[in-house]
Amino acid sequence: MERAIEAIASDYDWGNGEISVALVSDAEIHLINRQHLQHDYPTDVISFDLTETDDELEGEIIASVETADREAPHHAWQGDDELLLYVIHGMLHVIGLLDKKEEDIQEMRAAEKHYLSMFAL
């Protein structure tokens, strides 16, 4: 996960920064989702871009281990690979990629696939 985060930051021209990663339960991510995003349900990953200057990237990535373990068999891989996908997805949000519009979704999926191919089994 650390190498994937570093690769994404480097590829998007961030040399300095600090990204925290929390691996949590569905209950914990549900609480965070409700408190910070007003969504009353668990989710796979939540990320926050906390960057305040152009000099240092700062962010938080919170990923649900339970969701990863539950969803992994649907994609024919291990929970760790699914969890890596969540962290990659969260990091891509931290550096500014979006996934609401169709063209943004395509860019996000291509980036996810690229980084997964580098670091997943």
Describe the model:
- Helix 1 runs parallel beside helix 4 (79-94), helix 1 (2-11) packs across helix 5 and helix 3 packs across helix 4.
- It is built from five helices and three strands, in the order αβαββααα.
- It is globular and about 35 Å long.
- Helix content is 52%, strand content 17%.
- A three-stranded mixed sheet has the order 1-3-2.
- It has a single domain (2-119), classed as Collagenase (Catalytic Domain) (3-Layer(aba) Sandwich), CATH 3.40.390.30.
- The relative contact order is 0.19.
- The protein is of the alpha+beta class and 121 residues long.
Brief write-up:
This protein has 121 residues and is an alpha+beta fold. The protein has helices at residues 2-11, 26-37, 65-71, 79-94, 102-119; strands at residues 17-24, 45-49, 57-64.
